[in-house]
Specification:
Blueprint: E1 2-6, H1 10-17, E2 30-37, E3 43-54, E4 57-71, E5 74-79, E6 86-98, E7 101-112, H2 121-150, H3 156-165, H4 167-170, E8 180-183
Antiparallel strand pairs: 1-7, 1-8, 2-3, 3-4, 4-5, 5-6, 6-7
Helix pairs in contact: 1-2
Length: 184
């Protein structure tokens, strides 16, 4: 679980988090994304492929599941094992305004259906996930700030160019100045 106060207004943070088609902007391990409507109101199915490395180990992960907005700022995510590298999984996002800042809670649980080499082990996997999560939150904040400064109405190509100008939004390291976060 991570709880963070993001230095950007709630509507910008919400737009960044729910831009499923462009999730690679906040998680550069994602290489492909497919977003589909479902027959259920307010639910979208998202599938993505990502590439990861821990030390000398390289591996690919497929994730797919349904994302439901139960109320504004509350997202419920259910992993679909038929289209994932996971036997099960769930997550929630809670995004609440705090003046010009945003309080964000993210909690997730995943049970992988792939082999984790003993030399990598739980410790390294947990450390990798913790670092990746913090970097993702940093990019959420940076991305929302760029949108605030330059305008939400920028089209996708303009926004990609603006984010590339600000390397902190793209790079894995750096930009941790404004984020106040607690990971449990």
């Amino acid at each position: 679980m991570i709880v963070a106060v993001v230095n950007a207004p709630e509507d910008y943070v919400y737009q960044v988090v729910t831009d499923y088609k462009h999730v690679f902007r906040i998680n550069p391990t994602v290489t492909t994304v497919d977003v589909q409507d479902t027959d259920r109101d307010g639910v979208v199915r998202v599938q993505h492929h990502s590439k990861h490395s821990i030390g000398p180990f390289r591996f690919n992960i497929d994730w797919g599941g349904d994302i439901e907005e139960t109320e504004h700022g509350h997202l419920k995510i259910t992993t679909n094992p038929d289209i994932s590298s996971f036997d099960s999984g769930s997550a929630i996002w809670v995004i609440n305004p705090q003046g010009n800042r945003t309080w964000v809670l993210h909690e997730s649980k995943l049970k992988p259906n792939f082999f984790i080499p003993p030399v990598v082990g739980d410790y390294l996997i947990k450390r990798y996930i913790r670092e990746a999560t913090l970097h993702t939150f940093n990019r959420i904040e940076c991305h929302a700030q760029v949108m605030l400064e330059r305008g939400k109405e920028a089209d996708s190509e303009q926004l990609n160019a603006l984010l590339r100008e600000n390397e902190d939004c793209i790079q894995r390291h750096g930009y941790e100045a404004g984020l106040v976060a607690k990971i449990q």
